[in-house]
């Protein structure tokens, strides 16, 4: 055979292959040479417009070969362009339906009939008649409602096969009218709603036919039962896909005419369950899976329930998402009156769901689950669940319906597009926004349909194969444009629509709130105050009126600031809504924005750096401390641009910078104010990094300790200079000794600075005057660091000095030695374990430590009487120091297994063994614990338990300070603060925060068991 020129085939989008040539010749579309007849040219032109031309040619050749009326078929293809468009549209768009036509070649006649423009593609009654006839149902008999009505006469595998063939024949008609306009422009376009309604009608008829076939299989002695099949999801909304699961809920009851004395619920439910199970099996093998997982209690619940059982469940136990699912419920098969009764029972709960306490939490959890369920490698290919996908549109429309449908019955519609139109008519969504979202939704649904038709496979993933993507695009009517292929043009449109949907919550949910409270110029949507209040409450704000006032304050007016805020806030409101405390977040955002109103870069940074804005909203909705700090440390916002910038500053570099800034000040007060400002900046940076999960708890402690040391050093330098200026000469050397958590390098956000002061007169100075000068310096240092200013104070606490508050503030090294040798109590040895020079004269600090070593690390170990005394004091602390009303199981410092328990245990080991174990000579708790393990004083398992408990308590204590904005050791019993602490510590937002409390108690309980064993035995 002579091969035609490549360009002859290429003109019609066909590859130059032997298979294609043979098929074309078999169809009479090519001569043995290279000529195309005029009649064949029209057919090939239609072929060229199909989704996959070579597929259309091959399927048509196989159909012609199997058809008994081959001549009639080919004549119709050649002379009836509208029929040709329908047939070739299917053959070039779906291998599954092409295979069906080859297997059932007489079905091509079904495509000769025209659908009525503007109406459903198929008449529901005609569909039911075709499917019923396939299994031998008498069309004149009443429809099956359970054990009553018309039953199938064809049963078993024969019924399933017959129903499958009939189902495919009707699916063929719908797909043909859907795909045909891309092949023949003269054919009316089938709208997405008409396609979906026809698919839903086909599903209803399939369910009804399956029920009749299941009823025929019931044993003769089965108890009488009525069964209603309530469609849910897309089928319930009459928005079904080509290859969707059909979601249903079953309701069973006795026949109305059955005497009361003959009614046995158990036997009736056995029959109804057999009917439901049989129907699911038959439809699953003939068409698609019937999914009843939306029933009460899900897959673990009874398949069929009575109306009373449904009423009890939905009245007491149902979750918010279950009521949201019921938004689309409708009777689809079986007993329609029983199905309506189910709707009457559940409908009030649907429209009151927004008033449920769990509404916001359930809605937010549902949104998170949608995204979490997407595998990472599918995120960019998901048409349904991905960002900007179908579920985003459906979720937003349903949420708006639930919020406003309570008061507006016009919104109580099941379908997404009809619901969106109702929202536009009611003024809840702007006309332009509604049109944009409807266009995006229609595009995505059509693409989903074409994907599923390709191989009659349930999928929502865009194909990776370039040829399949081109097939999808062409089946949807796309063609090459310039140098771009149809797939590339399609992809461009898809990205545009996805971007529209990504702005979904801004467009449809958040932005109208601003229009309700701000004087927005132009023809924009304005919600009523009542509607705005409902919507803001649905986001999780407990005080909607206050939230609306904050929005008004931020967005009202025509200033540039107000305009930028109107752009930012729709995005940020969603982040506030997802945070533990939306009210706190919005209030703090208003305070920060007002404080920085004249800072030229603030709003520009938020507008241009989306990550900064999102992080800021999340931080403010999680932490009172961050909101307080950022109003005075706005420069930290610049570090939120990326993780590297936030983590770049190191403790030693921060210390050097802070001291250099303080040294350039003219007065002591100005110097310390600069130091405190630097400390505030570092506190804010560390807090932000902590909240974002970027900085480890030990690094937080080191950073807080180093910046506190730097502030003390700056204050000491400034106070010394002031006293020297006032008194004319420098008479004393002074060293500041860090104690407690400061000495141990374990500061938290709310820790005080525990210190002691040691001084020596300079050579030739009067000792009394030198000591008086040192006292004046120490007193001024503390007052400068604690002076009321907008910056966080650093409270310097010297109560651990000899004789406590009654003792001298500053002593000489000789005085310390004398006191330790003659008067010191065992607890003072213990306190000195954390002593470490942090500021002032380095040589004097080293001498103090050397002298303290002799006292705190006794060479012969601790006297047994001192051990007993320390145990006695610890027992007294346990009994007396826990605040009244505190829960000992969740108090992070003084509770059972808390920080105090672990630290006292480690410190007792140090006092007893540091004289011989050099590794124990450290002020750091965890370092000492590791040294005790290495020395065999603690088992490896016990060391792990104590380390874990200490870290857990430290993290929790820091989290409490971040959330509440003030020092706190008690874990909240419940509420938003508990949820915020749990979120900060890494627990999922949709998990019960009680899981965190249980985990904390478990760690503390294990720590306490080790403490009880070691503290008494050490």
Automatic annotation (TrEMBL):
Stored InterPro entries: GlnE, GlnE_rpt_dom, NT_sf, PII_UdlTrfase/GS_AdlTrfase
Domain PII-uridylyltransferase/Glutamine-synthetase adenylyltransferase: 365-509, 874-1015
Pfam families named in the record: GlnD_UR_UTase, GlnE
Record-level Gene Ontology MF annotations: [glutamate-ammonia-ligase] adenylyltransferase activity; [glutamine synthetase]-adenylyl-L-tyrosine phosphorylase activity; ATP binding
Domain named Glutamate-ammonia ligase adenylyltransferase repeated: residues: 159-344, 614-849
EC numbers, comma separated: 2.7.7.42, 2.7.7.89
Family annotation (PANTHER family): BIFUNCTIONAL GLUTAMINE SYNTHETASE ADENYLYLTRANSFERASE_ADENYLYL-REMOVING ENZYME, GLUTAMINE SYNTHETASE ADENYLYLTRANSFERASE
Name used for this protein in its record: Bifunctional [glutamine synthetase] adenylyltransferase/[glutamine synthetase]-adenylyl-L-tyrosine phosphorylase
Organism: Nakamurella alba
